[in-house]
Amino acid sequence: MIPPAPPRPAQLGPLLARCRLDRGWSQQRAAAELCAAAGVPTLSRHEISRWERQRRVPGGFWLGWLAVVLDVPLVVLAESAAATRRAGSTRATGPGRAAAAGPRPAGRTGPGRAGGTTRGGGARARTTG
Length: 129
What we know:
By secondary structure, the protein is mainly alpha-helical. It has helices at 12-22, 27-38, 45-52, 60-70, 74-87. The protein has 5 helices and no strands. The radius of gyration is 20 Å and the shape is elongated. The relative contact order is 0.13.
């Protein structure tokens, strides 16, 4: 008889959200708690949101502080982070990484691109050559 497979670790985003909500914390409060614990004042609620939506996966530094602040064993968070990375559910790119999201949809342009506008709202003339 084949023994049952061990349970797969949960994906990190839902785990973080559940732990945060179990404490009754907003994303802002979670970011403030992490900043206070780590002594790093630059983490915002936007990064918490990115982690929970799995747009990004926190690295070892923040995983360690998440374990402390959320009172979750680091091994649980690390296994969940690894499972999330293996599943390829992170879509954002970081410095030095190739874009994983693919090409931009046709017709979507922004400042500095063909068809975009300058900050003043006027059309930018482009020449080819």
